[in-house]
Structures are given as C-alpha cells and as structure tokens.
C-alpha cells in the first residue's frame, strides 16, 4: 500500500512539471483604430434626452438623427433606459437643425433643435403614420454614416 501511494505521488510530482505558457496579450499601444470605423465627434458640446412611450416606459434602440445642416448629421441610439446623448459643435447649429427620432411601431418624431433642452423627455406616440419594421431598419442603417 505504501508503495502504491509513493508511486502515485511520484507520478503526480513529475506530471506537474510541465510548464504552460499563458497566452500573449497584444500591446494596446500598437493597435490601430481606423478613422473610417469610428468617425470623430463633431464637437465638445453635449446634449442628451430620454425617449419614452405613452406609458412612460423607456424605448430601447430608437434611432436618432441630429440634422445639423444640409451636409452634416449626427447619429445616436437610445440605450436600455431610453437615454441617448450627442456631441456637437454649437457654432455649426442653424435655425433648421432638428432631431428625427424613429422607432418601429410609433410615429416619426421631429424636434427642432432650438426647442430642445438638456434632459429633455421625448414621448413617442402613434398619432400619425406608424413606422414599419422595414422603415425603421432602413433609417437605422442610413444614419450609420453620420458622425457619432
């Protein structure tokens, strides 16, 4: 019996000598971030809001487009709490600047920028044409080319 325990101990002792190399962690300083994947923010000014339905429940993944002018737009998507935020340059904002908020099953909401206040609560309704799944997906994809 003692020899069995001794042999088991020797096998265990010799089998544990195999050195396992941990995986190599890439050097984060050498990683490249491609500018076309992450467009730079338009400015340092910020504005945020919460998107709710008529029952005061947050709307997740609403697609938001801030139309700054005829050639510049900024995209955002609401989170699980219905919140979103945008970074912009207030010097580029015009009197025609506005937000477009789209979510499937609700009406398209347009809010002029000059009527928008910090910590705004935007309630989506079903009073006009209802956005279909395809219209939502098309809008969602189309604003991906806007600046974040």
Question: How is this structure best described in words?
Answer:
By secondary structure, the protein is α+β, with helices and mostly antiparallel strands. It has a domain at 45-145: Sandwich (Immunoglobulin-like), CATH 2.60.40. It has helices at residues 2-15, 133-142, and strands at 45-52, 63-67, 73-77, 83-88, 98-102, 109-112, 120-123. The strands form 2 sheets. Strands 3-2-5-6 form a 4-stranded antiparallel sheet, covered by helices on one side. Strands 4-1-7 form a 3-stranded mixed sheet, with no helix packed on it. β5 and β6 form a beta hairpin.
Q: Output the number of helix runs.
A: 2
Strand content: 25-35%
CATH architecture of the domain at 45-145: Sandwich
Order of helices and strands: HEEEEEEEH
Task: State the end-to-end distance.
Answer: 72 Å
Radius of gyration in whole Å, from Cα?
27 Å
- How many β strands by DSSP? 7
Sketch the major β-sheet.
Answer: 4 strands, antiparallel
Which homologous superfamily in CATH is the superfamily of the domain at 45-145?
A: Carboxypeptidase-like, regulatory domain
Mean pLDDT: 82
Contiguous runs where pLDDT drops below 50 for at least 5 residues:
none
Structural class: alpha+beta
Shape call: elongated
CATH topology of the domain at 45-145: Immunoglobulin-like
CATH top level of the domain at 45-145 is: Mainly Beta
């Amino acid at each position: 019996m003692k020899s069995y325990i001794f042999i088991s101990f020797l096998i265990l002792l010799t089998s544990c000598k195999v050195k396992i190399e941990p995986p190599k962690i890439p050097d984060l300083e050498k990683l490249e971030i491609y500018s076309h994947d992450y467009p730079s923010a338009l400015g340092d000014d910020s504005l945020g809001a919460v998107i709710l339905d008529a029952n005061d429940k947050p709307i997740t993944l609403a697609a938001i487009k801030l139309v700054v002018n005829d050639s510049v737009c900024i995209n955002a998507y609401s989170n699980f709490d219905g919140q979103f935020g945008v970074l912009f340059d207030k010097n580029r904002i015009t009197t025609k600047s506005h937000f477009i908020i789209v979510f499937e099953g609700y009406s398209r909401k347009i809010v002029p920028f000059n009527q928008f206040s910090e910590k705004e609560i935007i309630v989506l309704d079903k009073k006009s044409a209802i956005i279909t799944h395809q219209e939502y997906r098309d809008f969602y994809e189309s604003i991906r080319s806007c600046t974040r």
